[in-house]
Every structure is written in structure tokens, then in C-alpha cells.
Amino acid sequence: MRKKLFIVLFIAILVVVSACSQEKPEHSKKPEPNDNLVWVQGGKFTNNKSNYYGKSAILPNFYIGKYEVTQQEWTQVMGSNPSQFIGDHLPVERVSWYDVVEYCNQRSIKEGLQPYYHIDKNKQDPNNHSDNDHVKWTITINEGANGYRLPTEAEWEYAAGGGQMSKSYTYSGSNNADEAAWYWKNAGDQYLTGDWNWPIIEKNHNQTKTVGGKKPNELGLYDMSGNVREWCWNWYGDQDRDSGVYRVVKGGGWLGDVRSSEITYRGKFEANGLGPDQGFRVSRGE
Questions:
Q1: Given CB 3.0 to 4.6 Å as the disulfide criterion, which of 42, 196, 227, 240 pairs with 61?
Q2: Where are the domains of the chain?
Q3: Which SS3 state, helix, strand or coil, does residue 35 take?
């Protein structure tokens, strides 16, 4: 009788323990990375070269693209390829900020996610003070949506700098630009020296490169220094401003000087701007 009672009690304890373990929230465990997105643990900036280091900024967890969005990924969603340099596994380029916001929504719908942005093409954005941008769609955030979006400047710099695993590199994954970045000196037929010179760059057949061809950073992210410049959500200027002339671009590019490949470099481009060195990567909330 005692033996049977012991067995009954033992089974009851197992049931209780199992139930408690099942009640733990899913987000308490680090998600497994996949081929497209990398999970980034949030927190304070630990890269001591970052523009945000030593400040009060604390980021929540988020996902960010392992690679820049490729032409194959773009075409599967948008149906056409605007790029100057053609190749499935090259980053898409010649896309405006408006183009990539539309891509984020269309990809979200295709994958059964809630679009992150509300796009009003009939109302000009009063916060856009550019004289050259005649698009000026009013784009707002659908709070709580789980769809794809552009990273904020802070998220981009945090991820490029290695997040909580940062080794305080100057470039994303190295202190040696040639290990981590495609930029004007190494993105053509031969390694160039001297000063930046467009005729020499053009003659050297410089262009974008297949994503993932350089050393990844501490989080396993590729091409956050060089290849193409990447759109961010924010207006250019003081962080967190709600209006402006330009949107922030980060990460340098095949055409740019090595300085623009540093994680701290803050580029700017009008939202309707297009360029053969202008692309992006996606992000999502946790």
C-alpha cells in the first residue's frame, strides 16, 4: 500500500513540475537564429566607440537581417528588380526609403504577418522639410504589429557594433576595414591606393558584391560595413527627432570612403533618393 501511495505521489509531482515548466513564457528562451534573421539581445551599448556609448539608451531585444536584402528576395516580393548591378545574391540597390517601407509591408503580408507601417500616399508628410522630395508619403507605425520594418539608427548601430558581445571594433566585426567591408579601395578588379577618385573607381569596375563575402561581426551579421549603404527609420539630425530633410543611412558602401564604413558614421539621404550603393536590411521586434 505504501509503495502504491509513493508511486501516486511521485506521478503527481511530475505532473506539477511539467505544468510549471510549460507556463514559462516563450520569450524567456533565446530564439534560434535562422537563415534570414538574427536575434539580438538588448541592453546598453557596450561598444566604446559607439555614438551611444555611456548614454542612457537601453534597447529591447529585436531581430535584424543576417544579410542585406538581396535582389532575389526583393523580386520575390515586389516582382521587379531596380538594381544597376544584376545578380540574385547581390544586395538590391537603387531603392528609395519609400520603396523599402513598401517592401517591408508587402513581405509581411506575404508571410502572414501584420504590416508594421501605415502608408498614406494621398497626404503629404508635414514633417518632411525637403525641397527635393516630391513624394512625401505620410508613413506611421502600427503599434504592436509583428511585421518587417527598418531598424532604427540606434538598433542598427547596436547590432553593427556587436551588441552585448561587442569587442569594440571600429568596423562591424574588425578593426581592419578590408576584413569586414567592401569599399572603394577593394570593391573592384584591383586594390586601389591613394585618394578617392571616381574615374579610377569606374575604370576599376567597382560594384556591389555577393552578400556574406566578408568576415561577420560578433553577432554573425554580414556587410554592416560596406557593400551598400543601408536605410534606417530615423530622420537625420539629433537622435529621436520627429522631422527633417533627410533619412539616416548607415554602413558605407562599395563606392564610399573607408570612413563611411565605420559603425559610428552617420550618413544622410533624402527619402526619395536612389543610388547604386543604396540598399537596406530588415528588422523585426521580438
A1: 42
A2: 26-278
A3: coil
